[in-house]
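**Backbone description:**
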Amino acid sequence: MGSGGNEALRRRIETGGIRFTSFDYAHPDPGDLPATLSELEKVRAASGRCPWLVLDGYNFDAGYQASIRAAGHRLLAIDDLAHLPHYHASLVLNQNLNSERLAYQYDPDTLLLLGPDFVLLRREFLAWRGWRRSIGDRATRVLVTLGGSDPDNATLKVIHSLKLVKVKGFKAIVLVGAGNPRLEELRLAASRSGGKIRLLHNASNMPGLMAWADIAVGAGGTTGWEMAFMGLPSLMLVLAGNQNIVAGGLAGAGAAVNLGPADRLDASNLAGLIAELSQAQSRRREMSENGQRLVDGLGARRVVELAVGLDSNKIGDDQVTTRRAARKDAVEIWRLANNPTVRLNSYNSEPIPLDEHLNWYYGRLDSPGSRIWVLEVGGAICALVRYDRLDPDEIEVHFMVAEAFRGKGLGTKALEMTWRRACEELGASRVRGRVLIHNAPSARAFLKAGFERAGQIEELGKKCYLFEAGR
């Protein structure tokens, strides 16, 4: 779905084998939501499945999201600012660095997909997974790509900068998008470079061009993630307010240089930065490695795996992976622990302050008497299981499952995949677990995982069942 006015976008979508439907009105026009819901119902009737809707735009407010979910449809909201007072989507995707620090407010069954692990690259880049850039002593090839339309004509400013670069053997390719209205003006400027600058209009082989280049001058949008994936050291201009997030994040990670707003660009300064970076082999190598460490090209696959997992009645062994919890998981686990259902099934139902959680969590990770594993679907934590030594021969288990994945057998799977290993690592022969009497799903998970009910106890004024297993 999209605007019928962008023919280049329509052709790209249809070339990918996707049906393109244009609406007469765009949200917030009152005609958009009924048209969208009608189209979704047609898809559901034709396929017999609940369709997914992807929203990418600042106009789609919380009420719009709530209406889509209320109609029974799955929803993926692509976001970068956490600007809404509340998110109702099934999945909220913010691929930017440091997005985990944003104070999202969301439904209990919403999953947050935060950070570069979920970067959505164009399909043509996937063939370049595993490719590594050769970093020469001197960089002589520069690629300039500033988006499809470049309304402020930043490309012309960069061309003027390129003419000032004093590097032996220097050459540049400047890409001009299909929507740029100043093609002839830019061609004329490039032609006056003495052969140093070649202009390409509406280029299609972006990965190949990035592989050709030693350095890029780009905009702080989606292209920034593509350059990081290709290990291309980049100088990034900010052409719109929301590009500050990508440019600043990649610069902070050591994968790019943030040049700031394009309207403040100084031609001689940019020329000097290009020449300086050209001679700095070790810095370019570091920038290249940092970029490829951030973006592995599997983001789209992870998102699809999560969508499939949410649509599954039961999570299979081939859909889930288990790993030891790490320090980087602290905030995601804090969000999981503060889920309303998790709090309801805990001895202390009050929300956990972040600082208190971090102190507790890092202490557990460092404790020789504790083990924590997380289960992931599509790179997102869907369950957690923790073991603590009670005495030399016995350990206690606690687990929790993300609300979006409850009822899919993950509690049982979390126990089955870890309790024997925990006994072995902690030197115990028995493991026990406690479940509040009203928490029937967790009780069933213990029984299905091979535990036996060993009685009923009362702790902190709450009655609970005791489950045990031994090796």
Remarks:
- The chain is about 35% helix and 25% strand.
- The first strand starts at residue 52 and ends at 56.
- Residues 223 and 260 are 16 Å apart (CA to CA).
